[in-house]
Design brief:
single chain, about 90 residues, alpha+beta, Arc Repressor Mutant, subunit A, three-stranded antiparallel β-sheet, 3 helices
């Protein structure tokens, strides 16, 4: 594995730490999480990759693949176990 791979992993962990609250009771829409990750990475001149790469990093971080959940009364794909910080 290259240093670039590990740098990418570090920035993703940094995003999780800074931008999200992790708790089994939390949940968040996939699209909102990806948009937050994308903005975070771009602000640091990093390539955020596409949604598929994001989903893989979420899986590696221990979050299950997104499933359909209710958010504000509407169904959408989302993750359980974290939410964006307010």
């Amino acid at each position: 594995m290259t240093n670039k791979f590990f740098e990418g992993q570090d920035i993703f962990a940094e995003w999780l730490e800074e931008a999200t609250e992790i708790n089994s009771a939390h949940r968040e829409r996939s699209a909102k999480l990806f948009q937050s990750w994308r903005e975070f990475a771009l602000a640091r001149n990093e390539d955020p990759g596409n949604y598929r790469a994001f989903a893989e990093q979420m899986r590696r971080a221990g979050f299950e693949a997104p499933d359909i959940h209710k958010f504000d009364g509407k169904s959408a794909r989302g993750y359980i176990g974290l939410r964006l910080r307010l």
